[in-house]
Structure formats: structure tokens, C-alpha cells
Amino acid sequence: MKIHELMEVIENKYPAAESWVFGDSIEMYDKLSALVAEGTKTATSCSYHAYKQVDEEIEIGNEYIVLNGKNLPVCVVTAIPHLIQE
């Protein structure tokens, strides 16, 4: 299966899913997406300031396609309840 076909399958199965990367460099995208896919990385965080700068808030139950450093899908995650502390 070619990459564009795989992405089409994923987008059809998760039509409302947005794409995400973890980290701030291609190397981090690869490393962290692998950790998510294997189940080692099960949570994430950011500063409150950064959280408030995002146009769309993360909603419980939303699904996100996790991408690696080549912008390829690695897995799909679902947002679960989280704590926001100011």
C-alpha cells in the first residue's frame, strides 16, 4: 500500500481526526511518535500560555493522527480527560 493510500484509509476511518506531531524537530517527531505507537509515551503537556495560544482547544474524545518526521502517519490517539492548572 502506498503512503497516500494509507493516509486515505486512515482519514476515512477517522474523518474528524486532525494531525499532530510531538516535539520541536524532525528527530523528536520520529522518536516521540515511535514511543506513542509502542505505548511508552501515554501523555503530553505544555505550558498554560502555549495551550491558550492554540486556536482550537483539545476536546475529550477527539482523535489525532500522530505523524513522524517524514509527515507519515504512525498511529491514532484519542484525547482523554486532563488537568489544566494555572
Can you put this structure into words, describing what you see?
The chain has one domain: Sulfate adenylyltransferase (Roll). The chain is an alpha+beta fold. It contains three helices and three strands, in the order αβααββ. Strand 2 and strand 3 form a beta hairpin.
CATH T-level fold name: Sulfate adenylyltransferase
Query: Poorly predicted ranges (pLDDT <50, ≥5 residues)?
Result: none
Number of separate helices: 3
Name of the CATH first level: Alpha Beta
CATH architecture: Roll
**Quick one: biggest sheet?**
3 strands, mixed
Mean pLDDT: 86
Compact summary:
This is ASCH domain-containing protein. By secondary structure, the chain is an alpha+beta fold.
Topology record:
Blueprint: H1 3-13, E1 18-20, H2 26-38, H3 48-53, E2 63-67, E3 73-78
Parallel strand pairs: 1-2
Antiparallel strand pairs: 2-3
Labels describing this entry:
PUA-like_sf, Sulfate adenylyltransferase, ASCH domain-containing protein, about 90 residues, alpha+beta, three-stranded mixed sheet, single chain, DUF984
